Amino acid sequence: MKTLGEFASILRSKNAGPLYVTFDIMFEDEGSYEAVKTSGALSAENVGRAYGVAPEKVEIYIYDLVTSIKITIPRKTVCGALDDDDIYGCQQHIPLSNIPVK
């Protein structure tokens, strides 16, 4: 079984303000995009489980026109707080990349 990281051509994370982190998932071809989109792998429940976030706090945006998906979740801590271990939010995509896609 392949993972999301194997389907995506670009998978990155970044801050979406001081309270959220967002993930950009881009695909090189329509087939990979459709396989992931229709698999159910990127459900709010699966993403929430990967990040320890309640599913109702996971926002998923599907962009068919550009074969991309954006996901936004709350940060574990406010950006720049003493316990913040990734101030830019740029190293948060690994758990997402490991989600299996059937």
What is the strand tally? 6
What is the CATH T-level topology? Threonyl-tRNA Synthetase, Chain A, domain 2
Specify the CATH architecture: 2-Layer Sandwich
**Helical amount among residues, as a percent range?**
25-40%
Per DSSP, what share of the residues sits in E-state strands of 2 or more residues? 25-35%
Q: What coarse outline follows from CA principal-axis ratios? A: globular
Order of helices and strands: EHEEHHEEHE
For the record, the CATH class is Alpha Beta
Structural commentary:
This protein is of the alpha+beta class and 102 residues long. The chain has a single domain (2-93), classed as 2-Layer Sandwich (Threonyl-tRNA Synthetase, Chain A, domain 2), CATH 3.30.980. Helices cover 25% and strands 28% of the residues. It is built from four helices and six strands, in the order E-H-E-E-H-H-E-E-H-E. The chain has helices at residues 4-7, 30-39, 44-51, 94-97, and strands at 2-3, 10-15, 20-26, 59-63, 68-74, 100-101. The strands form two sheets. Strands 2-3-5-4 form a four-stranded antiparallel sheet, with no helix packed on it. A hairpin with a 4-residue loop joins strand 2 and strand 3 (20-26). It is globular. It starts with a strand and ends with a strand. The model has no long low-confidence stretch (mean pLDDT 96).
